[in-house]
């Protein structure tokens, strides 16, 4: 069974065409910087490798370019889109409506749309991907896999906000958590690797969006993102944790409209607001050359992560391992080093030589005698989505 997996991020589309149940990768690709004139298209199959830069104005345009690559007579891997039996979609916010993978129906799409206001950088793009895929691949089953589902296990005392009960109970304002597909995937890899010493793990997903999860005995017990995917860690364009009185100050004293504040905190803040750049590669290069703003931003980013490591270690009454994953977590030597330094009291001792190696596989970056393992585990949300989509297809049959 060929399953196309679509993972639409806040400014990117990852895709993989996977043969299930063998998990054989037929092709994969990444479209980055969507909405910009210098968008990047990466595509790989057994017969072709391609990287090019060109304008991609919208997700609709990006998805169409992706379909063209799949069908290309020289580079493609299928002759007809009818060969694809299922399309698995990553959907960021499912609220309390979904605790598991589901087939997409009109009702499900309405629920996804309902949560667009809570995940404005993601759910609209997820929904657009669904609608385009339905149009371009009408014979395939469309499956939704939710980032929020993994965090349904977070206990009430951790997910409830200290606001009036009618808001938490009637309006369901609570911590939902995100990046659950990634946190689930890498935590299972970590537990398989660590064996018995895997009860208390902190997974650190660092990309354009960033989050951390405290995972005890394989389940999520706390998470850094909350009602929407905007709080917690410092991200590419999102501020992360902020004193909410700043919002009232911006509106009441500085004359901002609420929509302007929302745009400011989700699209103009974070690393972009601190440095003028959202790409950590550019920021790191400038920091190495002595750029004061970029140096400060890196230190702030790492400091916020360290605070969450401390709080989650306390919540779990101990720590067996931390896991770095996603684009920045897997590739940024400097962020991992800044995060791990001066955490010896927790049992975290970084091996700088191991940390500097760039290997695309699970590896330890801790010293041999470290009490707590520090792991780098490449995430593969697409394989996890394909697994869940395949299981759903079998249930339907």
From TrEMBL:
One Gene Ontology molecular-function label: acetate kinase activity
> NCBIfam families, per this entry?
ackA (TIGR00016)
Q: Name the positions where Mg(2+) binds.
A: 7, 381
Q: What SUPFAM superfamilies has UniProt attached to this entry?
A: Actin-like ATPase domain (SSF53067)
Gene that encodes the chain: ackA
Q: Where is the active site?
A: 147
Q: What is its EC number?
A: 2.7.2.1
Its name, as the record gives it, is: Acetate kinase
């Amino acid at each position: 069974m060929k399953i196309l997996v679509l993972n639409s991020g806040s400014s990117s589309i990852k895709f993989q065409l996977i043969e299930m149940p063998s998990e054989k990768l037929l092709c994969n690709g990444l479209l980055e910087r969507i909405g910009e004139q210098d968008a990047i298209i990466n595509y790989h199959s057994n017969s072709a490798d391609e990287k090019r830069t060109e304008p991609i104005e919208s997700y609709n345009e990006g998805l169409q370019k992706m379909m063209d690559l799949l069908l290309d007579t020289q580079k493609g891997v299928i002759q007809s889109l009818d060969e694809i039996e299922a399309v698995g979609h990553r959907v960021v916010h499912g609220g309390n409506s979904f605790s598991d993978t589901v087939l997409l129906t009109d009702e499900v799409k309405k629920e996804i749309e309902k949560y667009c206001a809570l995940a404005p950088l993601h759910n609209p793009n997820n929904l657009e991907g669904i609608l385009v895929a339905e149009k371009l691949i009408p014979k395939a089953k469309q499956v939704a896999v939710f980032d929020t589902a993994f965090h349904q296990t977070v206990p009430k005392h951790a997910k409830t906000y200290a606001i009036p009960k009618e808001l938490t109970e009637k309006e369901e304002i609570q911590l939902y958590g995100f990046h659950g597909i990634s946190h689930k995937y890498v935590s299972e890899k970590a537990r398989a690797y660590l064996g018995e010493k895997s009860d208390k793990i902190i997974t650190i997903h660092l990309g354009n969006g960033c989050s951390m999860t405290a995972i005890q005995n394989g389940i999520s017990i706390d998470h850094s993102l909350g009602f929407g995917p905007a709080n917690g860690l410092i991200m590419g364009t999102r501020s992360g944790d902020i004193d909410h009185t700043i919002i009232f100050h911006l509106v009441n004293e500085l004359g901002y409209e609420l929509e302007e504040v929302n745009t400011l905190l989700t699209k103009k803040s974070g690393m972009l607001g601190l440095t003028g750049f959202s790409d950590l590669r550019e920021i790191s290069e400038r920091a190495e050359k002595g750029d004061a703003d970029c140096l400060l931003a890196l230190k702030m980013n790492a400091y916020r992560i360290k605070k969450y490591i401390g709080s989650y270690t306390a919540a779990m009454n101990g720590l067996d391992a931390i896991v770095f994953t996603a684009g920045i977590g897997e590739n940024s030597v400097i962020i991992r080093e800044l995060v791990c330094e001066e955490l010896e009291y927790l049992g975290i001792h970084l091996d700088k030589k191991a940390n500097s190696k760039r290997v695309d596989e699970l590896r330890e970056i801790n010293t041999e005698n470290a009490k707590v393992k520090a792991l780098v585990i490449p995430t593969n949300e697409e394989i996890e989505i394909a697994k869940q989509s395949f299981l759903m297809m079998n249930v339907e049959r």
